[in-house]
Amino acid sequence: MINYYHILGVSPNATEAEIKAAYKAKAISYHPDKHDGDKNMEELFKQVNEAYQTLSNSYKRSNHDMMLKYGNVASTVVHSTYGRRYSHETRQHYVPQMSNWKATAYAFLFAFTIALIMKTGMYIADEYRARERAELLAGRRSIFSKVKTAHDRGNLNESLHLLSDLGHFWPEERDMRDFKDLLLIEIKDKGDRLLAEGKFEMAISHYDLLKDYSVSNTISYLKKIAMAYQGMGEIGKALEVFQMMHLYGYRTTSFYLEMGLLFEEGMQDLDKALNYYKIGADLASSEYEVTIGSAYPIVINSSMVPTSHYQIYMKVAETHLKLGQYREAIDAVAWTKEIWKDSLFQYQIEAESFRAMGQRSAMRNTIASAKLINPDFSLPSD
């Protein structure tokens, strides 16, 4: 095999620039035009070109280097002296055919060995990971077995905690993920049953299990928590839950009515109760203006509004009365009597407010209007 590095007179570590420079020098030196068609120079010129074409191509150069390393290479030296002939090795352009086959076989065997080693390593690594995954899955399945045992004993708390310790479920564990979803629903439903049965403390213990899951961010869940605390007499905690609902953006007339009731009945704080009642009443009025228009006080009637709106308007008036704000109480029912024409409670508030203010004539007129609805209407005694 010809050693192209020797032909160009460069080392095997020569850079592309060095190879190109050597080629140009040799090509100029051996160009046939300079030697009057000398066949030896023409042959040298061809080999210089062949050497450059090989060594300037990275792929061909790599193959050439491998053949040099593993094949039987005949050293070739190019002499620049005009008229000198190649040595015996130079004139033999090719190694005997058998040597080429050996070099090719060695190169193939080397590449095959490397590939086999890499493939074997990858197989061993895959087998190790598969075995490790199988062991982990088996361990998690063992925990899941304890989860189901705890559930069968009725210990939902332990069952949920064991499941939670498993963290994210793997694709092979779909049944475990489904079990957890059903378990959360079961805990919620049991808490709802306990709440309905008046077992508030037990209901809270079940609701608390859900606090780290998405269900705990729902308004329905928070309202039930608040109801349970209220049932236990824990009004402060119930109010904390309502305030959290408010932070979540929950703002309805019913919500402000419930907040007001907590302050009025639970905390005996009429001022704060009135504040929430008025917010709810204003919210209801703004809804009328949006849906009906600015003329809503004239056209609105009881069939157009929910019961919670009547309740909160009456609470505003009643709380004003309890706080001794009689004129405000009278103003609060002035227009509601046109919506709920048959409601005697608003007539009672108005009549009691006039009586407290010493306006007996106005009180009697209100009582007379109420008796047109119900002849048996009368004020509680002083």
Topology:
Blueprint: H1 4-8, H2 16-30, H3 39-55, H4 58-70, H5 88-91, H6 97-152, H7 156-165, H8 174-196, H9 200-208, H10 219-231, H11 235-247, H12 253-266, H13 270-291, H14 296-299, H15 307-322, H16 326-334, H17 344-356, H18 360-373
Helix pairs in contact: 2-3, 6-7, 7-8, 8-9, 9-10, 10-11, 11-12, 12-13, 12-15, 13-15, 15-16, 15-17, 16-17, 17-18
**Principal-axis shape:** elongated
The helical percent reads over 70%
Tally of helical segments: 18
Biggest sheet descriptor: none
| CATH structural architecture of the domain at 4-95 | Orthogonal Bundle
Determine and state the CATH class of the domain at 4-95.
Mainly Alpha
Structural class by helix and strand composition: mainly alpha
Radius of gyration over alpha carbons?
49 Å
CATH level 4 superfamily of the domain at 4-95? DnaJ domain
Distance between the termini: 128 Å
